[in-house]
Specification:
globular
């Protein structure tokens, strides 16, 4: 056996199969909405159950994941087409920053005007937050939709509204209605 256990025989863990059902459960919060939105963008059909749990949980066959970041990454890899994770370092850094911002946006009413104004400027020059569609767009869109539903989104953000429509166009119609009903 090598240093740190390298060379040890690994135990095989069961993997999810193509026919296994995706089930998402969690509280009616932005974290759950972000996971639903990511599933929609990646065209992953799932059963959704709202409950009083503290965290959002995804089950896919024998695989269980807890927490929005883990779930969003899993859905990105398992979804249709090429993953949304950018290959360019700058895009990856920008993506991760937007994901951070989307989490704090809902907790900090003071920054909403500043962040959404900056988003509007960026989206005047490009179709998505980072340039290409990335993992940042779905969770940030879910945060913006939550702000909009709560009446906290500033008016006059035409580029943000257009981008929101562009992100939603990637979501199959059956999931679009489902995630909208779960936003809070």
């Amino acid at each position: 056996m090598g240093l740190f256990g390298f060379g040890k025989k690994k135990e095989k863990t069961a993997a999810a199969g193509a026919n296994d059902t995706y089930t998402l459960s969690g509280p009616a919060t932005a974290a759950t909405a972000k996971c639903i939105m990511t599933a929609g963008v990646r065209k992953v059909s799932m059963e959704i159950t709202m409950n009083d749990a503290d965290n959002v949980t995804l089950t896919h066959g024998p695989v269980t994941l807890v927490g929005e970041s883990a779930i969003e990454t899993y859905l990105d890899v398992r979804g249709e087409g090429a993953p949304l994770r950018p290959k360019k370092a700058r895009h990856l850094g920008d993506q991760n920053r937007w994901i951070e911002v989307s989490s704090s946006l809902l907790d900090n009413n003071e920054k909403v005007d500043q962040v959404t104004a900056r988003m509007n400027e960026i989206l005047a020059e490009q179709d998505y937050l980072v340039g290409p569609l990335t993992q940042a767009d779905a969770p940030v869109a879910a945060s913006i939709l939550c702000l909009k539903k709560a009446g906290k989104l500033p008016s006059g953000l035409t580029n943000v509204e257009t981008w929101l429509g562009r992100v939603e166009e990637n979501i199959p119609e059956n999931l679009r209605a489902s995630y909208m009903s779960h936003l809070s």
